[in-house]
Amino acid sequence: MKKLFALIMVAAALLAVAMLPSLGIAADAPAKIGLGHVTSIGSSKDKVVAANGKVTPAVAQVDTTMAIVAFDAAGRVTHITIDTAQTKVNYDEDMKVTSDLAALAQSKIELGDGYGMRKASSIKKEWNEQIVDFEKWMIGKTVAEIKALKTKQRDASHIAVPDIPELASTVTITVQDYIEVVEEAWNNAVPVPAGGVKLGLGHEISIAKSTSSAAQVDNVFAGALFDKDGKIVGVIVDTAQTKVAFDKDGKVTTDKAGEFLTKKELREGYGMLKASSIKKEWYEQMAEFEKWMTGKTVAEIKALKTKQRDSSHIAVPDIPELASTVTITVEGYIAAVAEAYANAK
Question: What is the pTM of this model?
């Protein structure tokens, strides 16, 4: 009788484990990680001269939503971080840049209460608090289940607000872009070895290359999975160089509805191959650098010996094992990975 009871208990336990995916619970450790993004310049504004001569200066705005997501073997989210950078380049009446070109832009998470949503929020929650609650809701679900979320349109600026009881008091932001980047992360996901326990997202955003005729936002972002000792199990780095061009009258000439691709998405279209001394495109060199970082701690990565090749390449790897594979300058990528570690959860 005892043996029969024991067998029943084992069978029940096995059945419970088998049912975990259907219950929306991630049963396994990370098996894949993916990086997703969506970029828009739709909020950029033309210079406007009113009938009375009053001038409203032009503004370039690049909105990039980023996500690093870990998935288990069943395709369910185990770890996730989403962030958004709304980066502005301001101009004066004469189309001279007034923004500080040397300053690094901050994301919504970094801004925290400085983003200013709490006062306007019906639930009195800041953006960084709401996105954490939305991330928690996604844990244990597949992309298909996440995409099936019931939403409602609150107004023209909030077209997909969650419309389910469990999120009613925690998430009132519009979530279509966040779901899109998670789906892209899944579509781009790559296998990682066992041992990952913390996942982090980091970035570095610069407007330094902006001019009077075109704003340029360079967003380096990195997602990394770390083991219990802080060593990288898997890492993905990408860069979005987004330009907003203006004509002589301060009108935006870049297609506001256009698709803005990252360096990895551009592949050969980025155009590094011809200028490369090792005849490798950016995405190929980054793949080699990601391989080199895997298995190392952030401290070991930051200790990489580098050299200055010219004013645009101030930190090129200077070690034999990368000499024939990585000739790009890597300071921004290392900074983004270091931030990913600092933010890992």
Answer: 0.89
